[in-house]
Amino acid sequence: MKWLDTLTERSTRNLARRTSRRSLLGSLSAAIVGAALMPLLPIARGAAADNGSTGTHPKPNDDPTSCDYWRHCAIDGFACSCCGGSQSECPPGTEMSIVTWIGTCQNPVDGKHYAISYNDCCGKSACGRCQCNRNERDTPLYVPFQSNDYNWCSGSTKANVPYHCSTARVIGEAK
Amino acid sequence: MRSRVALVGTLLILTCSSAWSFEPSMNYALQCMGCHTPDGSGTPGRVPAIRDTLLSFARLPDGRKFLVQVPGSSQSMLTDAELAALLNWMIETFSGTKAFSCFTAAEVARYRSQTLVHVRAERERLLHTSR
Fold it and tell me: With an 8 Å Cβ cutoff, are A157 and B29 in contact?
């Protein structure tokens, strides 16, 4: 059995001569840090590209048929631009509600804040296209005067008029 | 120095002044106009017209309380100073006169702490009184 002792001793001494005492720590740390850094590598993620109609919208744009349109920052409903109308006009066959929810949105072009009136268009069944639900700075119903969660069509002179879509009219610079 | 203080004091008395983040006209747009419409005429039978009653209410002690305690005012997210400035702006804009005593933040705070429950009945009573 002496040859085994000699072999073990030689190989151990060899190993000790070639490697420093801290090398194990070094390589182990490198492995741990490397494993932790793996998820940070630039990898295309399909989920990150999801641009649904809800959630936060960091990049407002100029397309009135998009929920990310800058005037739509507090919209809750179907954008009239997708329903045969425009951001300021009701589609044919509908009537603009008199009562409305008003909030402010920042125009990305000039950086100024504008008061936006989300007049609902009423008189036809729900449009169903471009359902936008951004609701920025809208309050819950228990803070009623800052909440947009109403059917504003029911506030018009005619009772029980169906809701069709929402406009987003600029009524002035907010200052 | 003293004369300058006096001058500033006089200017404060001459105008209904206060500090606010938005101008009162914008606060009207953001807090009131959605229902009361841009000219304050409301929707008959649904949203009360305010343009013709503001001044007469502002000249009655109970009317001044009502203007602050009505839920749209008292429960708004405005500070007492902002609400005072907004009420002053509304009264002046819709009545076209400055002949009324301005609301101050202190007066608004005093009324705002009391809740008005029977809003419609109180409004009817005031309309009757101011006639």
Answer: no
